[in-house]
Fold this sequence. Notes:
Elements: H1 3-21, H2 28-31, E1 41-43, H3 47-59, H4 64-74, H5 93-109, H6 112-135, H7 150-157, H8 163-167, H9 171-189, H10 192-208, H11 214-220, H12 228-239, H13 242-250, H14 254-261, H15 272-289, H16 292-308, H17 330-333, H18 340-356, H19 360-374, H20 408-416, E2 425-428, E3 431-434, E4 440-444, E5 449-454, E6 462-469, E7 471-480, E8 490-493, E9 496-497, E10 506-515, E11 519-523, E12 528-533, E13 536-544, E14 547-554, E15 584-586, E16 598-599, E17 607-608, E18 614-615, E19 621-624, E20 632-634, E21 637-640, H21 642-665, E22 666-670, H22 675-680, E23 684-693, E24 696-712, E25 719-726, E26 734-739, E27 742-748, E28 758-764, E29 775-782, E30 791-798
Helix pairs in contact: 4-6, 5-6, 5-9, 5-20, 9-10, 12-13, 12-15, 14-16, 15-16, 15-18, 18-19
Domain Glycoside hydrolase GH146 substrate-binding: 661-797
Keywords: Signal
Pfam family, one: DUF4986
Amino acid sequence: xxxxxxxxxxxxxxxxxxxxxxxxxxxxxxxxxxxxxxxxxxxxxxxxxxxxxxxxxxxxxxxxxxxxxxxxxxxxxxxxxxxxxxxxxxxxxxxxxxxxxxxxxxxxxxxxxxxxxxxxxxxxxxxxxxxxxxxxxxxxxxxxxxxxxxxxxxxxxxxxxxxxxxxxxxxxxxxxxxxxxxxxxxxxxxxxxxxxxxxxxxxxxxxxxxxxxxxxxxxxxxxxxxxxxxxxxxxxxxxxxxxxxxxxxxxxxxxxxxxxxxxxxxxxxxxxxxxxxxxxxxxxxxxxxxxxxxxxxxxxxxxxxxxxxxxxxxxxxxxxxxxxxxxxxxxxxxxxxxxxxxxxxxxxxxxxxxxxxxxxxxxxxxxxxxxxxxxxxxxxxxxxxxxxxxxxxxxxxxxxxxxxxxxxxxxxxxxxxxxxxxxxxxxxxxxxxxxxxxxxxxxxxxxxxxxxxxxxxxxxxxxxxxxxxxxxxxxxxxxxxxxxxxxxxxxxxxxxxxxxxxxxxxxxxxxxxxxxxxxxxxxxxxxxxxxxxxxxxxxxxxxxxxxxxxxxxxxxxxxxxxxxxxxxxxxxxxxxxxxxxxxxxxxxxxxxxxxxxxxxxxxxxxxxxxxxxxxxxxxxxxxxxxxxxxxxxxxxxxxxxxxxxxxxxxxxxxxxxxxxxxxxxxxxxxxxxxxxxxxxxxxxxxxxxxxxxxxxxxxxxxxxxxxxxxxxxxxxxxxxxxxxxxxxxxxxxxxxxxxxxxxxxxxxxxxxxxxxxxxxxxxxxxxxxxxxxxxxxxxxxxxxxxxxxxxxxxxxxxx
Length: 799
């Protein structure tokens, strides 16, 4: 046994002894009464324990003082280390996630270094909070944030002047991460100092928004704010002080709350991970106030996202936005697939909804997303985190490296892999719910009961639960998953069959007086299924039980596989493989496909494609998607009938050729109106608006305003500027386009085309305008009493 392992084992033993003597030191059940504290559920060997333990190793490679640097800077304290790049403008957001991750992993494992770092962070953050209170008494009492330029932003914001606030990158989203970090330090480890600091920080949020009208609050909430309504609701549950519930309601965005409470889906073209935390807050407010509108809003949001907007592996969104029905083909065309943060937050919402209504459909979704998305977003060797998971055929994912690429999904990734034991078991009244089939040991202290779950699922289709200590009566609620056929579930207790009347996606209740030595055996026969891509029925994915199956398709051109600190390193920027050259399943009857993939002898969860007729056939097998790394993959497969394939192949080839030719010419591009691309290209704007038309975003500027972006030239010349316009603009559309401060051209689109389709216009750029420059700023300025065009896409092209 190596030294590090010996130390870890010793620390865990000491931690277990400490917990046995101090069962009331932790607060997790004070907010989530149906959950068992993480310390009471021990993971046994398997993929989730491996992921958690590897994640702790990765966490301990980060420099805590660098994570705290922005907090000290904004509090006016001397630097101890250089701040991380942190997506220039979001300094501090990963620090909040990191504090949560330390608390979660200490609670789950007793890792002494996680505890040491957590305590150090809280002490440093207290110094920052005290300094803000002393030095910035006019706006900063209780503040503990690292938002760059905090003083200018919040001192004017509290007076109703949003200019500095809107010029910054999502300030509330940024500070929310530290709210969650402080709450979690108390929630998972019982740290009272963190609780005190959290409540003071909540008081600051109330104070800094006190003079804002309801209209100003709603306007403020148009900017991504993380889960501010959730943490304020948590403060109410912690204190029973009504001011926090009132604040949580003021931080609830009616743009989403009102339609969701009326069961109306208005999510098309909205930034996905801006909305999910709002829904978590709606649910929490409804849970604590019993307000029907809030309860309905949280519940319906979950229902419509999981039913209508979720891919086979549990993720949602493309290019960070919820697409419309017509735009779902973007999942195939684009490489910026579902974002890990979305699933992180959807699982949080799922746990909350299950707490009020322990329905198996919540647990079914949780299992599918935990295995196929969350587990797959960690590299199994070096532990790097994934941002986007492309669904595009034959593309790939990229991974973060410690101390580089401080993306939002790095922050949520730090937390994800420490929480695998959180939802395996829950309890309500006299019932114990077995929600997930994960090898683990439960110590139900209130009942004096211990249960060991032994399973190699999904490699084996069964699990076994053994009572290893205790003697007490309760209902054991065993999930009957949706993926087991009706009547196929088999349960025995001490060898005797259990009769039941339940159906798939429900729970089977087994009530008796349980005693040490009782054994419950559960058989979970899985079968194959085919799942269509939402709103794109000719693209399908294969599943075996809850597990998404995919095929490796090569390792060529994995550009940026382990990303550095580059602005766009989280995007897998290697060559897009032509869709017309991807495998195409040719089958008239889709219902027969599930039975045509056959198990490979001696290789669990591995299936042959040999029985399927396929154009562009590949030599590959299907295996669990979560096991595929460092490779291109095929998760979604085009499926056409024989006649469809003959007519479709030629036209697809032509379209793909045009797309790939444009990609090859592209040096840099930006999608105006989309939050992340605009931030990545350092948008500057004044008197500028955004909107959506034909499922594409646009930006314009009005008289006296402008908007501009910084684009990379890659040190090239002989370039041109391609702008995408709508062909039927209304109103006076005379405007100028600048490269840096030099006018490139004047344009007048008023009545130019009178055509209801998009128009791409290419403007040559003089070499003198780009010579010797790494970047240029492309600026759009309306002429007097005019507007710019609605600009949909901007590309810097090689001529």
